[in-house]
Design goal:
Blueprint (H helix, E strand, L loop, with lengths): L4 E10 L2 E11 L4 E5 L6 H9 L6 E6 L2 E2 L10 E4 L11 H11 L4 H14 L15 H13 L5 E5 L7 H18 L2 E6 L2 H7 L2 E6 L2 E6 L1 H6 L4 H6 L4 E11 L2 E5 L4 E5 L9 E6 L5 E3 L6 E12 L3 E8 L4 E7 L12 E6 L4 E4 L2
Parallel strand pairs: 3-8, 3-9, 6-7, 7-8
Antiparallel strand pairs: 1-2, 1-4, 4-5, 9-10, 11-12, 11-14, 12-13, 14-20, 15-19, 16-17, 16-19, 17-18
Length: about 350
């Protein structure tokens, strides 16, 4: 089946700045796809080229099999929901939602029925007569979403859609957005700089940096199998250990850390003496007072942060390398104190061996 969205070698510059650099991307119909990246990575420019607000300098943009070259924004099967929602303050909720329909020529009972349907969809029945200033932040976000969906776009672009919400409301709304997208079957592309938000929302995530797509994968694959150090560091918390390849047999490698030896799994082939970086997620490491078999490093506790459900440690190995550890608080895990010596242990399959 042909992809619903296809970007082929799409580039865009603003003066000397290359905002998007030769991006290739395919997105399936009905997919909830997230573009994730820091400010200036090119994600919003890519979104605006899909919407038609920017024209690519080179490359092609196809939506539902149609080349979008020369197609005006109003004629594309696309709608966009902006970060600030852009609601009309003097219009009622119903008039805000129906604004695009009215401009399309819809009126009378057909207009009323569609607005009522959208109000039910976003759980705002009974709010149609209110104005935006009479609503909470989460309710305004749902009004903006309903308005963006009013004309039944094939593709909905969402630019930081939850950024204006407080943390708890944002977390609740993430699941509402996923549920609504599944219900509609509309293709969503969400632009965000929030890694956790992207992980919750997306079927797949494309991570951008300096105008390019570094890795496109499902959330679990991005987190567990990053292609390089940038991805490992960008998604979640991670520790990096410098090491040298001591030996390799199939996918099993022995790594010299300058006095200590650890085992790891690696998909690529290395030569003896190659310098590598080992990435380990904090929740994959166990901190205890007793030495265990397998990968076990003697460490000294440098910093502690108690958060209730877990304790966050920063510990220093004998080789002078820092490890971050997130350990659940339980009766079985007796906490270590500042400057106390213990052992950090982890399994070979939880290491990620990287070269870049």
């Amino acid at each position: 089946m042909a992809p619903f969205i296809r970007l082929n070698q799409v580039s865009k510059s603003f003066g000397p700045v290359r905002a998007v650099n030769a991006v290739d991307l395919e997105i399936d119909k009905g997919e909830l796809f997230c573009l994730l990246g820091a400010s200036g990575s090119g994600k919003t420019t890519l979104l605006r080229m899909l919407a038609g607000f920017e024209r690519p300098d080179s490359g092609t943009v196809e939506i539902d099999g149609q080349d979008m070259a020369g197609v005006d924004p109003a004629d594309r099967p696309v709608n966009i929901m902006f970060q600030n929602y852009a609601l009309f303050p003097h219009y009622s909720v119903a008039k805000n939602i129906g604004y695009g329909l009215v401009r399309q020529g819809v009126s009378g009972q057909a207009l009323q029925d569609r607005v009522d349907e959208l109000l039910r969809m976003v759980r705002l029945e009974g709010y149609g007569s209110r104005t935006p200033h009479q609503l909470s932040g989460g309710q305004r976000q749902r009004v903006a979403l309903a308005r963006a969906l009013a004309r039944r776009p094939k593709l909905l672009l969402l630019d930081e859609p939850l950024a204006a919400l407080d943390k708890k409301l944002r977390e609740d709304t993430q699941f509402e957005l996923v549920s609504l997208q599944e219900q509609l079957g509309t293709t969503f592309m969400v632009v965000t700089h929030d890694q956790e938000e992207a992980m919750v929302l997306a079927d797949r995530i494309g991570v951008m940096d300096q105008g390019g797509l570094v890795q496109v994968d499902r959330p679990r694959t991005l987190y567990e199998k990053p292609v390089n150090k940038f991805i490992a560091d960008f998604l979640g918390s991670v520790s990096f250990l410098d090491a040298t390849i001591k030996s390799q047999k199939n996918d099993h490698v022995q790594l010299d850390m300058g006095g200590g030896v650890i085992s790891a799994l690696a998909e690529q082939t290395f030569d003896k003496g190659d310098d590598v970086t080992v990435a380990i997620r904090p929740e994959k490491i166990t901190l205890s007072r007793k030495k265990t078999s397998g990968n076990c490093l003697k460490v000294t506790v440098e910093d502690i942060a108690y958060t209730g459900v877990a304790t966050y440690y920063r510990v220093l190995t004998e080789q002078g390398q820092m490890l971050k550890i997130h350990q659940q608080n339980s009766p079985e895990n007796a906490p270590l104190d500042w400057d106390e010596t213990g052992y950090a242990s982890f399994q070979a399959q939880h290491t990620i061996v990287l070269t870049g």
